[in-house]
Write a structure and sequence with these properties.
mainly alpha
């Protein structure tokens, strides 16, 4: 996990471990990579939706076509989610 997250994020997670939910097994690396990538695309899509059209279009020109970026912005489901605030 440390290798995937990087030293800084891993250290922050350890420092905040008292905020973690109940123990559960982590998804495999491939599933975790997919979940993080999908969440990142959703975040970028939401950000683009708030920008002036010219800026959003310029950002989209630099990225490959993807339904998560091209479709309507849908708020993520928070059911069963754990949020780590790093600050």
């Amino acid at each position: 996990m440390k290798q995937v997250l990087g030293d800084e994020a891993y250290a922050a997670a350890l420092a905040q471990r008292d905020l973690a939910g109940p123990d559960s097994s982590l998804p495999g690396r491939e599933a975790l990579d997919h979940a993080v990538t999908s969440a990142g695309r959703s975040c970028l899509a939401a950000w683009c939706a708030q920008q002036p059209p010219a800026i959003a279009q310029r950002i989209r020109l630099k990225l490959p076509d993807n339904p998560e970026l091209d479709g309507p912005v849908v708020p993520p489901s928070m059911s069963g989610a754990r949020v780590l605030l790093i600050g």
